[in-house]
Amino acid sequence: MDGSGNTGPMTMQKPVYVLFVCLGNICRSPSAEGVFRRAVHEAGLEEIIHIDSCGTGDWHIGKAPDDRAQQKAHQRGIDISGLRARQFRASDLEHFDYILVMDRQNLADVRDVWRQNGGTEPELFLSYGLSEHEEVPDPYYGGDKGFETVLDLIEEASEGLLDEIRRYLA
Ligand code: 4NP
User: Fold this and answer.
1) Total domains present in the chain
2) Domain containing 33: what range?
3) Which of 42, 75, 89, 128 could form a disulfide with 160 if both were Cys (CB 3.0 to 4.6 A apart)?
């Protein structure tokens, strides 16, 4: 202690709130929450970066992630079994500093609310990735391969997002 009450460089850090949004909140956005949570943990930033996910639709409120999403995440050492779906709400635009949507339909839906309410402007999550992909494709009606693609795209964009937040915190 130096007498100033400052116990270390990170203790005064303002928290950063990150929200992932998809349609159902049972496939892509809980996968993104799990992957990004791990990246944040590995970076030792879990006290500072707070993460949540939600869906624009209401069909799956209160449900655990899709079994296929849980299984594919588990194969990469990520446990998303405890997550429960909730619906996006206008107040999320006030609370979260980053609102990261999976596809253009999610962007249009959240942007409609943002135009009415203001707050944090939603962005495509993959704008933080390096690949040419702009959207995380909805895997719900497809096979296992789609869930692998979701994780590949999300893992890459998570690294870019973490780099961006580190710059923001610096
Ligand atoms: P998600 O996938 O948006 O990645 O959670 C979906 C889950 C459910 C439905 C659509 C997409 N659905 O139509 O019920």
Assistant:
1) 1
2) 16-165
3) 128
